[in-house]
Amino acid sequence: MAEFSTPTTEQQFAENFAQLKPVMNRTEALYESSRCLFCFDAPCIKACPSGIDIPQFIRQINSGNDTGAARTIYEANYFGNACGKVCPTEVLCEGACVYNLQEVKPIEIGRLQSFATTKVIKSGEKLFGPGTDNGKKVAVIGAGPAGISAACELRSLGYGVDVFEAKAQPSGLTVYGVAPYKITNEETLAEMAYLQAQFGYNVHFNSAISSREELEKLEDKYDAIFLGIGLGKTNELGLPGEDKINCTGAVEFIAELRQHQHKVAVGRRVIVLGGGNTAMDAASESSRLGAENVILAYRRAKEEMGAYEFEYDLAKGVGVKGMFNVAPVEITGNGYVSGVKFIRTETKDGKVSEIAGSEFVEPCDMVIKATGQAKQTEFLSLIPGLKLDGKGRIIANAHTGQTSNPKYFASGDAWNGGAEVVNAAAEAKLTARGIHAYLSK
Amino acid sequence: MPDLSINFAGIKSPNPFWLASAPPTNSGYQVMKAFDAGWGGAVWKTLGVPVVNVSSRYGGVNYRDKRLVGFNNIELISDRPLSHNLREIEEVKKRFPNHAVIASLMVQSRQEWHDIVRQSQDAGADGFELNFGCPHGMCERGMGSAVGQEPKVLQMIVEWVMEVAQKPVIVKLTPNITDITEPAMAARRAGADAISLINTIQSIVGVDLDQYAPYPIVDGKGTNGGYCGPAVKPIALNMVKNCAQHPDIKLPISGIGGIENWRDAVEHILLGASSVQVCTAVMHFGFGIIREMTSGLEQYMVEKGFHTIDQMVGKALPNVLHWEDLNMKYKVTANINEDKCIGCQLCYTACEDGAHQAIKLNAGTRVPEIIEENCVGCNLCSLVCPVEQCITMERTDDGTQHVTWKERTEAGDIPTEFEDEQAGGRHHWVPEPSAALGKERHKTLPGKARVINGETKVPTEA
């Protein structure tokens, strides 16, 4: 019996994908903010990659200065609202809250943060604006958390900014990749509209930059180029049968889900391959779409999964079953997926080895591969002198984001290899300052 | 089981918890409901001259998410016809003969006082409380606190009342005066049987930031009201103590001010009250709070071995001294229980910025450390610590010496130079002023620190 019935309307979809961190009302915000201790040198701030002055904004909410709270948040992080909802707060700010040590529930920092930012987004009250025009221009490739954050910061420093985005909507994985129960499309896009209205950067949608000629045009026209291109498609596993119908990548599956919601069909028996946070999301989402049976298959032991514990708990909570120490060897089926052939594995001294003769077929009608995203190395090779590390990540100065091609700067997943929205937002702010320092020489 | 009943200046009551003269005692309906719920007595909402009230009468003080830690009102005495009130007093007494019903009174002339005392007596009131405390509305008409602030007038009126009263007379005092014992002594001189205190404190509980007017707002304007609620308890306790310790007063005291649970009541009793009165807490939570109050009081009495309320009255008074009589050789030092510490560092910043720079932070741990030689034993860290029993104040003198300021003065041994051993002696350890500059800048400006002056570096730990 499925945990959820298959949603067929927008409302049913919203119910199945109910927000994990719904926006607080004023009373709840008052009560929750009253609990904050206002720690000295607060651990929550240190745990936040963007260094938001959390005790300050909570105190501002508590004294009825919600606008000031939003300003505090946005001063440190342009994705303030999105981060409040999608950040793994359990392992960041809220995980660092001193209440944990007292076995008291930590302050719901993420929800308080979104409370304040939602309020200004709704009212449209402008908190920031572009700086005085300095006559210089920067091109930003990619309108994800890195690109948009860089655009905001660069505009505040007086640069003209053009953002080039391959897709039709801004915010990158926030609208195309995050699980729908973490943030809604409306919330994501409202924050993007709010930022653009304040900072006035240009975004060119459906404008992929993919050739050397296009890059050359940018190099001629702009004083610097910011790379916020993120990662690419789901890695191919190289398994026989991987091309069968209903064998899909998690990133692609989630992007479909975010855009088409209840119109996305999921199998009855779904196998998700992988042990990271995206695998957890894809498994949870399959279950919430009404799949009767969702198996999370991981080639190592449960304890070795890369996913946060709370993400696995979340998946278990909606009926996902874990299957560990199994490696896929073949996707079976005749045109359509009918199962996955696994071989059992064991982990010894940190090394995974297959147990000969232990193959078995687990039947299913859909396979979702959540086995990591490929780097966009082909595109990056078009940039002269741009160096990548052994894992295909852009090499850049840790404090300025400047790459080995001095005109190019980077932030976000393409640089860090794949992290949270908050990391991209924080890095992009640093990198924008790096661009400013470079162009001010 | 301990006996909770009291005999307060001749007024008997099944327990020491009375409702104060206020909106909860506005009618027979409310008083009967209260007695039914378990209250021992009620001081009826003040009977007196005809009044009219304004709409919008109460204002509150909220602290963070806690509502009504303070409360004020600009309501006047009973606006119900005297005959109705008297009839209902009679009904209540018939139904509850063993409960205390006290008529609170406020009129002007001698004749009016005589009349109203007689009428209340005839209605069956067990005693009278003379309202010399109301600090708004009535005082402008020469009543309430206008009387309480003039001991001579107070004495005269009490004497008028004593001329006809056949039941005990309690004089209710206003705290809006420099020395509460002055009117208390006047009451004693006039022959009153008891005093009750405190009435409300003149107050403005808040200002509306949009209308630029004080709460409660009446058509865009406001006025001072009478302050009460949990916030006034410390003021009330001090005044109760002042009256209880005064050698020339020696009257039973009904304690009023900030009582909302058994603990508050016991504090009033330990400082000399032999009955207690409650209003704000009932206005906030209803009559039902009495169940917790009686149960808590009983439990406390069982634990402490008290059989009667009388055994507790004034039990703390011998320990309330003047400052000059305190032992200056007594020394406590803060002690942080590392296992309990959650690392909020509120003690650090409180001591660093608000006290004596006697707590330091060490690299690699969030647990602060007490600098024992700098600690003056002020208690601040233990007061701000959010974890119970995490910071304790431990006695560090050997307990053998006892010297008071009074003794030093009498011995001609008062200091002629600044050399207080509690503050580091002659070599006072306060840091150089300039050592403060920039010390914690990166910690107090965390969100912005990363972008200040174009810096892009994340601040590193000191």
Whole-number count of domains of chain A: 3
The radius of gyration over CA of chain A amounts to: 22 Å
- Global geometry of chain A: globular
Assign the CATH class of the largest domain in chain B: Alpha Beta
- Alpha-beta classification of chain A: alpha/beta
Number of strands of chain B: 21
Strand order of the largest sheet of chain B: 3-4-8-9-10-11-16-17
Tell me the structural class of chain B: alpha/beta
The CATH superfamily of the largest domain in chain A is identified as FAD/NAD(P)-binding domain
Q: What is the CA–CA distance across the termini of chain B?
A: 61 Å
What does this structure look like?
The complex is a heterodimer of chains A (441) and B (462). Chain A is an alpha/beta fold and 441 residues long. Chain A folds into 3 domains: 21-123, Fumarate Reductase Iron-sulfur Protein, Chain B, domain 2, CATH 1.10.1060.10; 137-232 and 375-439, FAD/NAD(P)-binding domain; 247-369, FAD/NAD(P)-binding domain (3-Layer(bba) Sandwich). Chain A has helices at residues 10-16, 26-35, 43-47, 54-62, 66-76, 80-86, 93-96, 109-123, 145-156, 173-176, 185-199, 212-221, 250-260, 277-288, 309-317, 377-380, 413-416, 421-439; strands at residues 137-141, 160-164, 202-204, 224-227, 247-249, 269-273, 293-298, 321-324, 326-334, 336-348, 351-354, 360-363, 366-369, 408-410. In chain A, the strands form 3 sheets. Chain A has a 5-stranded parallel beta sheet, sandwiched between helices. In chain A, strands 5-13-6-7-8 form a 5-stranded parallel beta sheet. In chain A, strands 9, 10, 11 and 12 form a 4-stranded antiparallel beta sheet that branches. The longest helix of chain A has 19 residues, at 421-439. Chain A starts with 9 loop residues before the first helix and ends with a helix. In chain B, 30% of the residues lie in helices and 18% in strands. Chain B has 15 helices and 21 strands. Chain B starts with 5 loop residues before the first strand and ends in a 13-residue tail after the last helix. In chain B, a hairpin with a 2-residue loop joins strand 6 and strand 7.
